[in-house]
Design goal:
single chain; alpha/beta; TIM Barrel; binds 2-phosphoglycolic acid
Length: 253
């Protein structure tokens, strides 16, 4: 059985004290409401990873990074490597987020390198893919997602790809308040799973969790998560409020 997963992407928000408060609020909400059999991952800004992973480790949930370097080590001022994150107990890393693609020019090729380094250091990539509005309007969304998934992941063998979490995040839905409809999410998730089946076979594709991201919130999560191929969510804005985030964690039927 593939895992149900809810991951929170805090992006570049919160100063230290607010970040620590939010971590403790999440702990309180999880203690009060539980998390069923959902895996919970919080991805704060890199400077708060140490504080966050200490709190998470004591409270049964996990912490992921939002990015890592495409280089393994050396003279890359300002970069943070996969081995550094791994050595601090970080279990996951978001890769290929549309904001990294748009503002930092990350290509599928660069992201594929980051996927490899994440796996090399025993962490789980949360690989994001998704089309922009114009691509959906011109009915290119399936082609776009096929290219993103195949170029960043399909060099992996069966065992390696089984470690990956995929997040479908239509760019037009990220931070806009416009969520993909439940049918649109299911349709694309089923398509991604069909690509995985074609390449790796049914046994592997059935085990890979595919999360939905893009204005997913405490109100719409249950409907999205009720779909057979939607295995959870990658949550931005709503992950900054502990009660909303934990309500989403508990939105599986
Ligand atoms: P959002 O962001 O939930 O604020 O739309 C999702 C994401 O970017 O991962």
């Amino acid at each position: 059985m593939r895992k149900k997963i809810v991951a929170g992407n805090w992006k570049m928000n919160k100063d230290f004290q607010d970040a620590e408060d939010l971590m403790f609020e999440i702990v309180d909400e999880l203690t009060e409401n539980g998390s069923g059999d959902t895996e919970v991952i919080v991805c704060p800004p890199a400077v708060y990873l140490e504080m966050s992973s200490d709190i998470a480790a004591e409270n049964g949930f996990m912490v992921g990074a939002q990015n890592l370097s495409q280089w393994e080590s050396g003279a890359y001022t300002g970069e943070i490597s996969a081995s550094m994150l791994h050595s601090m107990g970080i279990s996951h890393c978001i890769l290929g987020h549309s904001e990294r693609r748009t503002y930092f020019g990350e290509t599928d090729k660069v992201i594929a390198t980051k996927v490899d380094l994440t796996l090399k250091y025993g962490m789980t990539p949360i690989y994001c893919c998704g089309e922009v509005l114009a691509e959906r309007q011109s009915e290119k969304h399936f082609d776009v997602v096929r290219t993103q998934v195949s170029e960043a992941l399909f060099h992996l063998g069966k065992e390696a790809v089984s470690q990956v979490i995929i997040a479908y995040e239509p760019v037009w839905a990220i931070g806009t308040g416009v969520t993909a409809s439940s049918a649109q999410a299911q349709e694309m998730h089923a398509f991604i799973r069909s690509l995985l089946t074609e390449k790796y076979g049914e046994e592997v594709s059935a085990e890979i969790s595919i999360l939905y991201g893009g204005s997913c919130n405490a109100k719409n999560a249950a409907e999205l998560f009720a779909n057979p191929d939607v295995d959870g969510g990658l949550i931005g804005g709503a992950a900054l409020k502990a009660a909303d985030f934990v309500a989403i964690v508990n939105s599986f039927s």
